[in-house]
Amino acid sequence: MPGVSSFRNTLVRTARGALTGLLAGFTALAVAELVAGLVRPAAGPVTVVGGAVIDRTPAAVKDFAIRSFGENDKIVLQLGILLLLALLAAVLGVLALRHRRAGAAGVLLFGIVGAAAALSRPDSEGAGDVLPSLAGALAGAAVLYVLAGKATPAGSPSGDEGTGVGWSRRGFLTAATVTAAAATGAGALGRSLSGQRGQGAVASRRNLVLPAAAAPAPAVASGARLKVTGISAFTTSNRDFYRVDTALVVPKVDAVTWRLRVHGKGVTRPRSYTLDQLLARPLIERDITLACVSNEVGGPYVGNARWLGVPLAGLLAECGVEPPSKGGGADQLVARSVDGMTLGSPVEEVMDGRDAMLAVAMNGEPLPFDHGFPVRMLVPGLYGYVSACKWITDIELTTFDAYDPYWVRRKWARRAPVKTQSRIDTPRPFARPAAGTVVIAGVAWAQHRGITRVEVRVDEGPWQDADLAAQDTVDTWRQWSHRWQATPGGHTLTVRATDGTGAVQTDQRARTIPDGASGRHSVFVTVL
Q: Are 366 and 374 within 8 A, CB to CB?
């Protein structure tokens, strides 16, 4: 039947066009990855476009992504970009069956977009960063142009730019297989080259010998660790410590070549430090709890670790910096990461005597790459987005009026002290414990103020004091527990904390934007 035959030919033709487009897109990405391995891995098109998307995404959408996908938000973004590229490549492949030049031009357009994104990145190293996107686009356009000209089934009408010859099914599949194999090889070589470029950083971390602290952390207070099943460990392991940042590719910085520059307003003696110079200074070791401003009430983005580092106030004073309370002209410290991230910290808090530091180690080992190797900054009592710059490479003293860091430009607060918070770790939401004694337990934190009281309420009953573990320091979280005589039925358990100033955790719910979530954590359980 002529109609059926025509429909079948159209389907075959469309399928070949879509496959041609996908092969062209795959080739473009593979060649781009190969060139990025030669030039700079962070300049790959998926990375730079993903970074540009993150930078231009409204804060509320970023917050939604973190809430919905947690630490997998970057993987979801990258998969989304790849799926969109695959769809567009398939469409361009179908288009190229009739308009080969238009299809190839579409691929080149994506290369231009990638090149523009590369130049727009704050860590751009110049014209070289456009090469991966442009080289990949040229390779993809060439594959699309050649294959589309031969993708018409033999004996079918060719496109207006086709040769009219067409390949047989076997010939087309052979060409597609060869193209896919070549692209796969290019991509694999690119990944290998990228991995080799990071070997210097890996070796520098492996070979780093940490000096002993001049002021070691005291032993964790006796009784600070409760033996309750399900409660968060007092010390969070490096593997389990939360990670929230905008880096699609974790920077691997060679400690040998790393430098930290200190300069700006009120810096009378600008300096540059190597890691060896920092390690030669008297180091302090402290247990400090960090919290992310994106942490919802009861959320997971908080952790406690033992940090080793250089006291930041002393280093700044060495450079001539004075806090505003002593006549210093700068009230904001802008920390810059190797990937261009900027965080702004209040100079007064950094230099008020708390253990603000440039950390070089975490829980007894050099910082993991995910957590800022070779050096990161942290300031107890402030949310991470204004204090905990990872992969730090530059400190500029300025004023809040003169400069808005990355997150402030996206409507987050300039100053962000950690809010008093508490969390129920056990029982878990919707747990079904047996009637009788049920241990309710969790952690509470109010860094640099400490926790003095935790109370638990069952349903709408009275608040009851929980038993507090010993307080290690005011900069660490505090474990707590409460023995509840549970009766059958559904119950809502709520917790609240009181900090060292006497302030009780508010029951007023607030979203994470602009300065951190507030409210009280509750879980619903069914007692059997």
A: yes
Reported as a single tens digit per residue, the pLDDT across 198-227 is 788 999 999 999 999 999 999 998 899 999
User: Quick one: which of 356, 337, 367, 355 has its CA closest to 238?
Assistant: 367
Cβ neighbours around 285 below 10 Å, total: 20
Q: For residue 14, which amino acid is it?
A: T
Instruction: Name the one residue in this structure whose structure tokens are 């900090």.
Output: 499
pLDDT digits (tens, 9 = 90+) for 396-449: 999 999 999 999 998 899 989 999 999 999 999 999 999 999 999 999 999 999
Amino acid identity, position 519: G
DSSP 8-state secondary structure symbol assigned to residue 509:
-
Residue 320 has which token pair? 């001539």
Rg, the chain, Cα only: 28
Q: Tell me the C-alpha to C-alpha distance, in Å, between residue 13 and each of 49, 158, 283, 292.
A: 32, 10, 69, 52
**CA distance linking residue 323 with residue 332, whole number of Å:** 10
Q: Environment class of residue 509 by beta-carbon count within 10 Å: exposed (0-12), middle (13-18) or buried (19+)? A: exposed
Write the CB contacts of 478 (distance below 8 Å, at least 6 apart in sequence). Answer: 224, 443, 444, 445, 450, 451, 454, 468, 469, 471, 472
Number of neighbours of residue 430 by Cβ within 10 angstroms:
10
Cβ atoms of 20 and 108 closer than 8 Å = no
Ranges 96-100, 167-171, 330-334, 511-515, most confident = 330-334
- In whole angstroms, what is the distance from residue 446 CA to residue 459 CA? 25
State the CB neighbour count (10 A cutoff) for residue 163.
10
* DSSP state letters, 4-48: HHHHHHHHHHHHHHHHHHHHHHHHHHHHHHHHHHHH-GGGSHHHH
Instruction: Give Cβ neighbours of residue 195 (< 8 Å, ≥ 6 apart).
Output: none
DSSP classification of residue 417: B
* Matching residue, tokens 């920092």: 278
pLDDT tens for 102-123 read 888 888 888 888 888 888 887 7
For 81, phi then psi, to 5°, come to -65, -45
Q: Which two tokens stand for residue 484?
A: 């509840």
| Helix, strand or coil, per DSSP, at residue 305 | strand
Contact indicator for 401, 344 with CB cutoff of 8 Å: no
Distance of alpha carbon 396 from alpha carbon 408, whole angstroms: 16
- Give the residue, 20 or 350, on which the prediction is more confident: 350
Report d(CA 107, CA 483) in Å as an integer. Answer: 64
Distances (CA, A) of 184 to 23, 178, 188: 11, 10, 6
Read off the pLDDT band of 62 (50, 70, 90).
low
